[in-house]
Write a structure and sequence with these properties.
Blueprint: E1 5-6, E2 18-19, E3 30-33, E4 68-73, E5 77-81, E6 87-91, E7 99-103, E8 110-115, E9 125-128, E10 136-142, E11 148-154, E12 160-165, E13 170-174, E14 180-184, E15 191-196, E16 207-211, E17 219-224, E18 227-232, E19 244-249, E20 263-268, E21 271-275, E22 281-284, E23 290-294, E24 299-304, E25 307-312, E26 318-322, E27 329-334, E28 357-360, E29 366-369, E30 380-381, E31 387-391, E32 398-403, E33 408-413, E34 422-423, E35 431-435, E36 438-443, E37 446-450
Antiparallel strand pairs: 1-35, 2-31, 3-28, 4-37, 5-6, 6-7, 7-8, 9-10, 10-11, 11-12, 13-14, 14-15, 15-16, 17-18, 18-19, 20-21, 21-22, 22-23, 24-25, 25-26, 26-27, 28-29, 29-30, 31-32, 32-33, 33-34, 35-36, 36-37
């Protein structure tokens, strides 16, 4: 499960979130969300037909009640980092913190701590890396001039595995496998993309490709079934800028589609659907063979396991179900009584993340679950107003912040089901993270596991 953070201090702890700024402007709008960000269930297969996705089963149901399993105080604690082996706590550089620690998931006891002040000297901000391979935890360290370095540590003892400094006009991303991808934009008009197997072998390029396209300064990568997708990182840009724009074969870097970039592309089963600029929507197989072409309104495709949904944008917005094999329209769902708010994703969604939920904000919050095969959705009114922020915690639920920035309450609800699941769940805390499928809350140096 992808890591998600909320904090009132966005500069210190960047958040993947859906911010509902300007509530009055959103009246009558609809927001489509998922419980977290996918790890690639809408992936291509080597089979020539659309397979049934093994990840289409629903995620675990959230617990009916949420209690504090344990709470500990960690002096000088900063960002909380996701690791399979335990909860890693980075130092708070602004408060003079110097230690990297790992806590036991079972009881919060300290497994190890190491002084990393010499590693992080000269840096001002630490940011988490969402996905790391087993045995590793990674953080970005930034200077006040926004120069970045990647630090990768061992979860066995906190020892430094490797450091990689990001050069000017070069942009780095670490895949869940530990592979390092680099974009070199120093030559005007072209971008060179390279892959290295790990941070320790960062200078050993497995391949490099040149593309005549403008690069994205912030990006993340997703590797799956021999393919790597390059996507805009929603944490760095506008929260509604969800876009995967390039898919290449992981083995040699050759683009899946020969003419390169497809803005707002998505996999549905083993079909890659995407548009090039304002052109038609096209479907390709995993070898780049064009399967179909359809004229569409402005918008973008959304892959949901083996299902393909096209989201139109503009004054009149619709969700349109398409047959991934032929591009034929199967169903259309129009917003009744007003425009849709552009769906917001920081990571590509998938069925394993929870339901494909819809939220209406006027006059109070209403939620429902969109059936990707029929477009059917039934809304339930939760009688909650003054929505401020929406976050995806665990198991398909939605965490809702109400009130003002100074005075707020937190409710958790399950889309399409009446009432609320947990009431004022964060009354004793002010930040939370979903890490390794666990719900972690904190306030200052206090860290708690909620279960």
């Amino acid at each position: 499960m992808k890591a998600v953070t909320h904090s009132p201090n966005a500069a210190a702890r960047p958040a993947s979130r859906w911010r509902l700024r300007g509530a009055a402007a959103l009246m009558g709008a609809v927001l489509m969300t998922t419980s977290c960000w996918g790890t690639g269930s809408e992936t291509p297969s080597s089979a020539p037909t659309i397979p049934s996705s093994p990840e289409s089963s629903p995620p675990p149901t959230p617990p009916a009640r949420l209690t504090t399993a344990w709470e500990v105080t960690v002096t000088g604690s900063g960002p909380l980092l996701e690791a399979h082996e335990g909860l890693v706590v980075a130092p708070d550089l602004t408060a003079g913190g110097s230690k990297l620690r790992m806590l036991n998931w079972a009881d919060g006891s300290e497994v190890w701590s190491v002084d990393v002040s010499s590693d992080l000297a000269g840096f001002d901000i630490l940011r988490k890396v969402p996905d790391t391979p087993p045995g590793q935890v990674a953080i970005w360290a930034e200077t006040s001039q926004q120069r970045r370095s990647l630090f990768v540590y061992s979860t066995a003892d906190g020892s430094l595995i490797g450091r990689l400094d990001e050069k000017p006009k070069h942009y780095l991303a670490m895949a869940a496998s530990g592979a390092i991808y680099e974009m070199d934009t120093s030559n005007e008009g072209t971008v060179r993309i390279s892959r290295a197997p790990s941070v320790k072998e960062a200078h050993t390029k497995q391949w490099s490709i040149d593309l005549p396209e403008e690069a994205r300064e912030w990006f993340w990568v997703r590797e799956h079934d021999g393919v790597t997708d390059f996507c805009v990182d929603g944490q760095a840009g506008p929260v509604n800028e969800y876009a995967c724009y390039l898919s290449v074969h992981t083995g040699d870097g050759s683009p899946v589609v020969k003419d390169g970039v497809r803005y707002r592309s998505a996999w549905a089963g083993n079909v890659l659907a995407g548009r090039k600029n304002d052109g038609p929507l096209k479907g390709f197989d995993q070898h780049g063979k064009e399967l179909w072409t359809v004229e569409v309104e402005d918008g973008y495709p959304l892959g949901w396991g083996d299902d393909l949904i096209y989201v139109t944008e503009g004054t009149h917005q619709s969700f349109v179900g398409l047959d991934p094999a032929t591009g034929k329209e199967l169903w259309r769902r129009d917003r009744d009584g007003g425009p849709w708010l552009t769906p917001v994703f920081d990571r590509t969604p998938s069925p394993q993340d929870g339901p494909l939920s819809v939220m209406v904000l006027d006059p109070s919050i209403q939620t429902g679950v969109l059936d990707p095969k029929t477009g059917q959705v039934d809304l339930v009114d939760h009688q909650i107003t003054e929505i401020r922020e929406v976050f995806p915690p665990i198991g398909g639920a939605l965490l809702i912040s109400t009130g003002t920035s100074d005075v707020s309450a937190w409710f958790v609800l399950y889309p399409g089901k009446p009432g609320t699941l947990w009431d004022d769940v964060l009354k004793n805390y002010d930040t939370y993270d979903t890490l390794d499928g666990r719900f972690v809350a904190s306030k200052g140096d206090r860290i708690a596991l909620l279960a």
